[in-house]
Structure formats: structure tokens, C-alpha cells
Amino acid sequence: MMLEIIKPNTNINFIGKLKYTVILSTVIILGGLFSIISKGGLNYGVDFSGGTLIQARFSQSTTASEIKKGLEPLNAEGLVVQNFGGGNNSEFLIRASGLPENLEQFSDQTLKLLQEAYPNGSIEIRRSETVGPKISASLRKKGFWAVALSILGMLIYVTWRFEFRFGVGAIVALTHDVLITLAAISLKGIPIDLSIIAAFLTVVGYSVNDTIVVSDRIRENLRKLGTRDETGVINKSINETLGRTILTSGVTLLSVLALYLFGGGVIQDFAFALLVGFIAGVYSTIYIASPIVLLFKKKKK
Length: 301
What we know:
Number of domains: 2
CATH topology of the largest domain: Multidrug efflux transporter AcrB transmembrane fold
Radius of gyration: 24 Å
Largest sheet: 4 strands, antiparallel
Number of strands: 4
Number of helices: 9
Strand order of the largest sheet: 2-3-1-4
Helix content: 55-70%
Order of helices and strands: HHEHEEHEHHHHH
């Protein structure tokens, strides 16, 4: 027997809440935009900005400001120290925008200064890497085009599979999801690197899947019930697929939440981006993509 989460006769007026949801999305996106501007632009990781990154683990609790003070003799350009992997204050990322002539020598020098600053505890350099300016610029450009072309590809597919208005609804919804995720990342202070780009691409793929399911039901109901009351047809279609959305999205969100809480510092930022993006994807399918289908029909009339 199939599990029934939503009763067959459920009739929630999703389209009637459109004004409130538009305001909510606008506030979040503008908040993210303000955060980006106030911070002087997007916070790129070493992958996209170039420079040197060292991941250090301390046996004793410390703070980013104390570590930065201990590394002052390095005279490293654009030195940034950031807590890594939660609130235990024992593991940190040390980033510098300059490129050392010898990465191994730079890491050894950093370790020596940290050992002098923390003589009573052990310190372990767990990772050290450097990315040149040409490679970082190339990666940044390719990352942007990967996200943009994936959204364009979804527009072409949904337009071919359904109608142009369904494609427009899908691409606006996908753009909305990426912007919401970007806003959350900026507000949380997460640097944008290759793992975040991978999260954006995953969000685009996941979000369009739910959009296609709802669009398919809308098209079926338009054929059965006619186009006189498209608002009612769209509401009915969303309600009919609501149980499926709750089941699939709920299980996925639980998995991503587990990754975020217990996956460790290496995967935490990626899991956070997925968590926000998946929630935005379910929301945008109901309140962004579907109403745009209705809006296009009204404009046509």
C-alpha cells in the first residue's frame, strides 16, 4: 500500500500567495547583493583568486586573530585566517594572495612561526597548495560558463519537451535558485571555489527535475480540464504532485543535512550550498516556475 502524505482532495491555494513569495525572494536576493557589495565583491577561494592556501591543525584551542598575529613576520600579502570545520577552534585555513617561490619552504616557514607562537602545543600542516593568477582566471571563467550554459541547456530542453512558457518558467526558477544560494553563501562568508560551482550545477539539475514533474502534470490537466481556469488547473497540479515532492525532497534534504552536520570541514561548505539550493528549488518550482506559465498565458490573451 502506497504511503499517502497528502490527501487526494487537498486544495492549497499556492498561486494566491504569489505576492508574499515574490517579496520574500526579493528581500533574500537583495540581502545577498548588499552583502556582496559591502564585502567588496564575491569572496573567491584560492581556486578562483589565485594565491597560497595552508590548512593547519592545532592541538590547543586558539583564534584566527592570534594566528594572524603569530604570522606577522611572514609579511604575506593579503593574509586571511579562517576557522575550518566548525566551532572547535583547532583547525584553520591560512590564505595569502601572494605566490611564494617555493611552496614547501613557505609551509615550513609558516609551521616554524606557528610553533614559536604556540610552544606548548603541537601543530600539523595538513594541506598546502598554490594557484597561479592565469589558472585561477581560467577556472573562474569556466566556472561561470558551466553554470550559465547548464541553465541555458535546461531552457532548451524544457521548451522542446513542453512549451516555451514552461521553459521560461524553468530558467527563471533556476536563476532564482542560484541567486538564493549565492546570497546564503555570501551572508555566511563561504569562499566560492570549485566545490561551490559543483554545488550550483547540482542544484540546477535537481531543481529542474522537480519543475519538469510539475510542468508535466500541468500540461496533462490543461488537456483534461481545458484552459478557462488556468489558475485552478495549476493549483490542482501542484497539489497533486505535493506528496511526491515532500517524499523525494524530504529524503534528499535529510541526506544533505547529515553531510552538513557530520561530514567534516572539507565537505561542509559544499553541503551547505546544496541544502540551501535544494530548499530554494522546491520553493521556486511552486512559486516561481508555475506562476510564470500562468503569467505568459495572461499576457498572450
